[in-house]
Amino acid sequence: MMDLQEKTSLLSRTGLFASCKAQMLEQIAEFCSIYAIPKGGAVFLPGDSGNSLYIVKSGEISVLQYSAQSHRQHHEIARYSAGDFFGEVDMLMNTKRNAEARAAEDSELLRFPSQGKGLQDLLLAYPPTGAELLHLFMQTTAARIRKSNALLKENSPWVQEMRTQVYGDKLTGLYNKTFLEERLPSYLTDAARPVSLLMVKPDNFKFINDNFGHEAGDQALVAIGTALVRHVPENAVTVRFMGNELACVFPDTDRQKALLMAEDIRSLLNKLDVSSMTGGKPFELSVSIGAAVFPDHAREAAGLIAAAHELPLIGRERGGNKILFPEDKQE
């Protein structure tokens, strides 16, 4: 069995992984295995699960295409030698093999992930590495087959798990700060189509945590997130941004519509029943909302987030339950 250092060295010399940093390579290597395959031995057959990719350490691997009707060999469609990798497209798309791979001579292969392990295991162990690796696969394989949209099926367990781990908030089930920061730019592409960002933050949330415990606070936050998702339009995106601050993105929403939506959300949360989290005692949430509009207040995502993010705290300082736009900062 190859030791970790040898596996890492092989990965670093392979085009797919050449740009990875040392720590990332070591983490990937933990999920790799090496094995020898004699001349004529099968790496995989048509119909096998495409759950791994392979790197040729030594020897040569021939990939043969077969007819679905006659099951007879048509021709060799690819041949891989030392340092080459193959099988990653089926792995990403969660599809079965449609070709046969055999050793053209005695060979050694590195398999990722190794038998009995899955990409989800790597993602759970090292989420940042899993996310970066997915993007790397997308870029590399897109260059190979020139159809990046065909790479990743929505029903791929790997893709679903990646999105949950990288872009999902475990407590609320909402999208997280990373999602907002990475995906908001895609909404801000046409200055003729305004986009509004609302930052929603309870003014008196600390009272729940201090008097009823942090578990009650967590439950209240889940209730707030659920209420928002059910209330906002289908094309809106709800995010847990930081702590007890939530964000809502509203496409095609100008300042006037944003104000109406903010007032609606404030009313919704003021009336939200959180008595089950406060020992049955009545409790009214007070919320302050910061609103910023593209392109009026910022023309890029970071600026829009910054413009809205600072406003709820200002609203709380002014007595709470306020709705503020950037121009309202100065009284």
Q: Determine the CATH topology of the largest domain.
A: Jelly Rolls
Low-pLDDT runs? 67-73, 145-155
Query: Mind summarizing the main beta sheet?
Result: 6 strands, mixed
**CATH architecture grouping of the largest domain:** Sandwich
Give me the strand/helix succession.
HHEEEEEEHEEHHHEHEHHEEHEHHE
Overall mean pLDDT stands at 87
Q: Shape, please? A: elongated
CATH superfamily of the largest domain: Jelly Rolls
Structural class: alpha+beta
Number of domains as seen in the coordinates? 2
Description:
- The protein has 331 residues and is of the alpha+beta class.
- The protein has 2 domains: 4-164, Jelly Rolls; 175-328, Alpha-Beta Plaits, CATH 3.30.70.270.
- Helix content is 38%, strand content 23%.
- The chain has 12 helices and 14 strands.
- Helix 1 (4-12) crosses helix 2 (22-29), helix 4 crosses helix 5 and helix 5 crosses helix 6.
Topology:
Blueprint: H1 4-12, H2 22-29, E1 33-37, E2 42-44, E3 53-58, E4 60-66, E5 73-81, E6 85-86, H3 88-93, E7 99-103, E8 107-112, H4 119-125, H5 127-145, H6 157-167, E9 175-176, H7 177-183, E10 195-202, H8 205-212, H9 214-231, E11 237-242, E12 245-251, H10 255-270, E13 287-294, H11 301-309, H12 311-317, E14 323-324
Parallel strand pairs: 9-11, 13-14
Antiparallel strand pairs: 1-8, 2-7, 3-6, 3-8, 4-5, 4-7, 10-12, 10-13, 11-12
Helix pairs in contact: 1-2, 4-5, 4-6, 5-6, 8-9
